[in-house]
Amino acid sequence: MNVVIVESPSKAKTINKYLGKDYNVLASFGHVRDLPAKDGSVKPDEDFAMDWEVDRDSNKRLTEIAKAVKGADRLYLATDPDREGEAISWHVLEVLAKKKALKDVDVKRVVFNEITKSAILKAMAEPRALDDEMVNAYLARRALDYLVGFTLSPVLWRKLPGARSAGRVQSVALRLICNRESEIEEFTPQEYWSVEAALKAQSGKAFNGRLFATDGKKLAKYDLNNEETATAAAALVRSEPLTVQAVERKPARRHPQPPFTTSTLQQEAARKLGFPANRTMRVAQSLYEGKTLDGETTGLITYMRTDGVTIAQEALNATRGMIESRYGAQFLPEKPRVYKTKAKNAQEAHEAVRPTDPMRRPTDVAHALDKDELKLYELIWRRTIASQMESAQMERTTVTINSADKRAELRATGTVVTFDGFLSVYQEGKDDEADEAETLLPKMNEGETVTLNEVLPKQHFTEPQPRFTEASLVKRMEELGIGRPSTYASILTVLRERNYVHMDRNRFVPEDKGRLVTAFLEKFFDRYVQYDFTANLEEKLDFISAGKENWKKVLHDFWSEFKPKTEEIIGVRNAVVIDALDEFLEPMLFAVEKEGENPRKCPACEDGRLGLKTSRYGAFVGCSNYPECKHTRPFGQKSDEAGEDGNGGPTILGPDPETGADISVRTGRFGAYIQIGEAEKGEKPKRATIPKDVDKGSIDLEMAIALLSLPREVGTHPETSKPITAAIGRYGPYVLHDGVYGKLSSTEEVFSVGLNRAVAILADTAAKKGGAAKTVLKDLGEHPEEDGPIRVLDGRYGPYVNHKRVNATLPKDTEPESVTLEQALEWLAAKASKKKPAKKKPAKRKKKAS
To answer: Which residue is catalytic, options 18, 146, 303, 741?
Structure first.
């Protein structure tokens, strides 16, 4: 008997079908051991020895694996073909050795890039030994990440209240986001103008031109820098007739992009499908592990954690065959296209992400895929096919038009695609805007006159670089050589989970605590958040994989400098740290907007000095005259924004109709709010928080009075005669009746919800709470080891996975439709392991007979 170890149960079932009855394929369910989340799991003083821990569920599975291996002839370790997969095989082997299960067992390592029958059988015929260098690179990475996290995070906790954690790569990614935000804040827009002309050719067709030169001199971007100069330039265009001076036509070609790597797949899925990185990887994992086609489970794409752009020869031939048969010989280049990655420190150990069979079109597999899987498969299929197609051919036309006195020269440009080539299958998405539409100019000849319909000066302002999207951040990290294909999604997820960033219109916005942590690291640990330092460390890990570096030497070199630095900063008094950060952050927190002003001057008490302060809730800006002066403003808010009116005070909306006191919009340490009057004799004035789905700039007096008047009585419940009220609470807008809360969709609905709608919402909520039938969002099938179905249900507090009496809430930002059985099993196992055993009731003591 032969035993084969893979990561997931679904993969195990598929491979078992391929190999037959002489093979017993078992799943490890991912990593079987990890470093305990406590100090001392990595021991630098003991030559970086590591204490590994097996959790309860993994121990149960490893015992079953050991039992199977003891009676086997061969053990095949068939985990994923990357560094993490090699590490899982190593962990399994280590545990089996301790269990003395490997006596007389021949151990082999097999790798395959796709889960298809031919790939599996080929891999089994070409086994190898475990790659010690790759394992060492994993150990070095794991130790580095652990040592940074468990050494640096305690420094943050002691010096920066409210900080959560720091990480070797996570903190560098956060720095990218925070630095981009600083660039945006410091950016000064520059005005410039253009002159646009609406024209008509002799054929009667309209087109547009732009002023290109005046008096024989080409206009630079900022030559027209105000309305006066732009208007004067526009006047030159009105010297008619306008005559075509030249018509120039040039051929051009646009080439296809290479097939997907992990990062480019995440980028395109974000741009075109709106998928966050973790969702893309979950769906890709499902496609990689396979779907049932014609009664047989088959992997649909190759391994999805890769930075390589090559395609295996067999797949290349199939791709070219598909192009010729489906699109025609004219779409097929004479020779296959060869690509090289541009990413820094790329390993290129695996193929690009591609369909396992390029002849398998999206329509051929649509019946076996859910909505997300079909979208992603089609994206991968189209990109792969397009990568081997002919270039698109186009013609670019430039028409030069002169005014009658030749003082103004206009240019009109147009592009016409003359041969679609790869564009007939795929076109690259854009981060910020769609591809410009191809413009066809009317046919014109030199010497003909054109009619001027209108000429307009247009004002423009330069703009800063936009905030990072997931796509653009992953791209930038890849360019810098930070992180690896397997880590991008988890890095972005951790930043959100730590509340260091939030998403605004799919862009990363740093939270105050994220910016403070970044400032602290830049000030006191600058070397360790430098992009080059992090990239060079990644390169050393690659050298370890290649056998060119000793992994323990790399760890020693890092630790010998990092540990003394942390001890040095631990010894610095907190007041000194805050003073240093106060000075370091002065350009951001206390920017001078007007000459002669003092941005540090307290607007409340006049003689106080504003500075950085900390509390258990985090950082803020406060007055030096505390506690006499209690003026504060949120961290990250510029001095000119200290007051909502721009002069250090709140925005006054108008008088309260009942008391006559001013109603104002203010910003406090916990966000924007509305207030009536001022505090008197220690009594707090009436306040109302501005909901997250309402822009504080849109608040007027009517809206403010409405928010302050909440809760609102909707009406009387027809069955109980008790009131139903609508209000906004900690978890958002709701209706309330007799202790039962019903969730509303928006703040607007708090003021508009009617009695019938409120009764229906409350009835639905009560039914769910009372154990009525739950809404099934996705049925994942039967539990592979126990009886009973596993389903994704819609609960009172959001979606969750359920098996019998165990419920596990879905992680933040997880789409219910994207959940896989393997994920559900992992979450349920984690939830079950945390449940405390029920306390036994003490036995009743028998009364003694009197």
So the answer is: 303
Peptide bond into 627 cis (omega under 30): yes
Distance of alpha carbon 144 from alpha carbon 554, whole angstroms: 9
CB 736 within 8 A of CB 763: no
Residue in this structure with the two tokens 């097939």, named with its chain if needed:
259
Going from N- to C-terminal start, the domains of the chain cover 2-130, 140-187+466-576, 200-255+393-461, 262-390, 712-769, 775-834
Between 42-46, 197-201, 448-452, 591-595, the lowest mean confidence (pLDDT) is in 591-595
Residues 117-168 have pLDDT tens digits of 888 999 999 999 999 999 999 999 999 989 988 888 888 888 887 677 788 8
pLDDT of residue 350: 75
Q: Which CATH architecture has domain 200-255+393-461?
A: Distorted Sandwich (2.70)
Please tell us whether the domain made up of 2-130 is placed in CATH 2.40.170.20.
no
pLDDT at position 131: 92
Locus of tokens 């040592």: 147
Please give the structure tokens belonging to residue 419: 């041969």
- Evaluate whether 195 touches 455 at the Cβ level (below 8 Å): yes
Q: How confident is the model at residue 622 (pLDDT cuts 50, 70, 90)?
A: confident
Question: Looking at residue 407, what is its pLDDT?
Answer: 94
Examine the pLDDT at 645 and tell me if it is beyond 50.
no
The CATH architecture annotation of domain 140-187+466-576 reads Orthogonal Bundle (1.10)
DSSP-derived secondary structure letter, 229: H
What amino acid occupies position 592?
V
* Token reading at 512: 């105050």
Place of tokens 């001078």: 592
Which residue bears the tokens 């305690």?
Answer: 154
Is 731 a residue of the active site? Answer: no
